Amino acid sequence: MSSIRNSRTRLLTAAATVALAALSLTACSDGTGARDEGASTDSSTSSSSSASTPAPSAPASASGSSDRGPSSGDAKTATLASKPAAHAPAAKAPTSSGKIVTCEGSNTKTVAAPLNRPVNHMLLTVTNTGSNTCYLYRYPAVRFGEAQSVPPVIEDSKPQAVVTLQPGESGYASVSLSATDGSGAHGHTEKSLVVYFHGRSGNESVGAGAHPSLPAKGVYVDDSLKVTYWQQSMDDAINW
Question: How far apart (Å, rounded) are the C-alpha atoms in residues 194 and 89?
């Protein structure tokens, strides 16, 4: 009996030992100890803290331009770059004001030139030297030397329209100085000439007279002296 009892005691002791070993192995394998729970809590807390903490912002550049926009120097440079390049104003050429005036001595230049053909004739050329268009009315009132009157005009030479001179343009008239057949009376030589200009009415002279030069030897005139109307072209002036 004693041996049987001892055998049971050994069996119970061995079973108890196996049961304790199994419990110990189970606790180690499922990670449910106090240290495991603490580690799990710390891991969860760390994860939550990492999610709620904002990420640090990127460092600003040394100039601070990424945060504050362009500096005052950069703004000035941008402003100057956006402006068109300045250009010196071009010199303006003289232009007509659009007003039309009467041609006379102060706004024209008159040249007197003796002609070979027709013989005993002289051509008057009047050039507009002003800045406005001018009208050359009727015919030249010429006075040679100390003459007391002006010669008559050849009526058949009257143009269809008033001669109009733009700045720089010229008008013409011819002067028949003496009869080609010698029939003229009171012939003499003159060395000075004044040309006066008619106004619109044609009954008076206006403005200053012109004083074109004559050849040094003078020109010969007689009482057949006469003039043409002002013409727009030289050819029309010397046809008479």
Answer: 44
Between vectors from CA 101 to CA 144 and to CA 105, what angle results, nearest 5°?
A: 25
Q: What are phi and psi of 44, to 5 degrees?
A: -65, -45
Q: How far apart are CA 194 and CA 211, in angstroms?
A: 5
| 195-212: pLDDT as tens digits | 999 999 888 889 999 999
Question: In degrees, to the nearest 5, what angle opens at C-alpha 188 toward C-alphas 183 and 153?
Answer: 65
Question: Which one, of 183, 173, 106, lies nearest residue 142 by Cα?
Answer: 173
DSSP H stretches of helix in the chain: 2-30, 34-52, 65-68, 72-82, 234-237
Q: Judge contact between 165 and 103, C-beta under 8 A.
A: yes
Q: What is the pLDDT of residues 86-96, one digit of tens each?
A: 444 444 434 55
For residues 87 and 83, give the distance between their C-alpha atoms in angstroms, rounded to a whole number. 12
CA–CA separation, 76 and 63 (whole Å): 16
Q: Cβ distance 229 to 142 under 8 Å?
A: no
CB 221 within 8 A of CB 177: yes
Q: In angstroms, what CA-CA distances link 66 with 62, 69, 71, 78, 145?
A: 9, 6, 10, 17, 93
Residue 94 Cα to chain centre, angstroms: 16
Determine how many CB atoms are found less than 10 A away from the CB of residue 150: 18
CA distances to 67, 73, 202 from 76, rounded to whole Å, are: 18, 5, 69
pLDDT band at 240 (very low <50, low <70, confident <90, very high): confident
